[in-house]
């Protein structure tokens, strides 16, 4: 570890390189995949498990964190690291991609973007300066400039306008970021699928002498071949001695081909259920190889019901057994015992005090299998648990 932000290249093979990003909170071995913890948590995992799997850094989402719990509240609690108990580096995005997805709820101009919250409809304004201010209150180690991301395909005029505005916003973000030892602000190369615009954006950002550079506006609708062509054009225009982050990309095939073109960092989380997002939890598309051996499906989070085929992680975390000499307080079984689903005979294993099986609709019912009876579903899920809502032995004990 070091008190300053440093990037050291240890070895190269063609355009591919292996290196280390050193920061006060730890080192990031590159090439690196950064798990996405949108609101401070990686889905379905404890952070110590994320660390045990080899992650040196995780991502946080500025857009979602500014809506709830809010950057001021996070700052009062000691910053995002203290709030989530993750003492290692955190990268926060600027919120530009999420704002792009709110095309019907936003208004964009030179000052920034005004948008309606998808949570409660409240109006918010985010300028380049405000984006850096929020990321500072979150106390993230790598902060991203605010940019405008255009979904492809798009008209060249729209791509050029967004690229030029992103360059102006990058300069404003650099001024707002100032000099923060041990931290970094990355600029974001835009330009869509237009080679000349990509080159102009990369050259202009290189002139700002930032600590790192991201390549954005890819994996937003274009074929993989187009993305790789843009990397072949963009990477040679970026400083060799600075880390390069390809935003929104993280499938194994994309990673391997991008590393071969000189990319160092990756991060992926898609909100579109038709894409292989969070591949350990969602089923792959038809005729597409699974992205993770432990793939499966689950119902909408609001229904809190796990379906067959979900990764065995859930069964392990919810197992009530205390055998094995594990450390007390470090396992889900040491927390409040959730209610168990009824078995095939309709009786609850703890006195029929469990919550009734939820009724599934639409896509969720399709995942479970059409025509299956409630008894068959509950029987196949008897090993899983559902979220406690104040019923069951634990809740009754607490009331006593």
General description of the model:
The protein has helices spanning 47-52, 62-67, 71-76, 80-84, 96-100, 128-138, 156-177, 195-206, 224-234, 252-259, 312-317, 362-368, 374-380, 393-399; strands at residues 6-13, 16-23, 26-30, 32-34, 58-61, 90-93, 106-109, 112-116, 123-126, 142-144, 184-189, 212-215, 244-247, 265-267. With 400 residues, the protein is of the alpha/beta class. The chain has two domains: 6-267, TIM Barrel; 297-400, no CATH class. The chain has an eight-stranded parallel sheet. It has a three-stranded antiparallel sheet with strand order 1-2-3, with no helix packed on it. Helix 6 (128-138) crosses helix 7 and helix 7 (156-177) runs parallel beside helix 8 (195-206).
Q: Which CATH class of the largest domain applies here?
A: Alpha Beta
> How widely separated are the two ends?
51 Å
Total helical segments: 14
Order of helices and strands: EEEEHEHHHEHEEEHEHEHEHEHEHHHH
Oligomer: single chain
What's the average pLDDT?
A: 77
Count of all domains? 2
Strand content: 15-25%
What structural class results from the helix and strand content? alpha/beta
How is the topology of this model organized?
Blueprint: E1 6-13, E2 16-23, E3 26-30, E4 32-34, H1 47-52, E5 58-61, H2 62-67, H3 71-76, H4 80-84, E6 90-93, H5 96-100, E7 106-109, E8 112-116, E9 123-126, H6 128-138, E10 142-144, H7 156-177, E11 184-189, H8 195-206, E12 212-215, H9 224-234, E13 244-247, H10 252-259, E14 265-267, H11 312-317, H12 362-368, H13 374-380, H14 393-399
Parallel strand pairs: 4-14, 5-6, 6-10, 10-11, 11-12, 12-13, 13-14
Antiparallel strand pairs: 1-2, 2-3, 7-8, 8-9
Helix pairs in contact: 6-7, 7-8
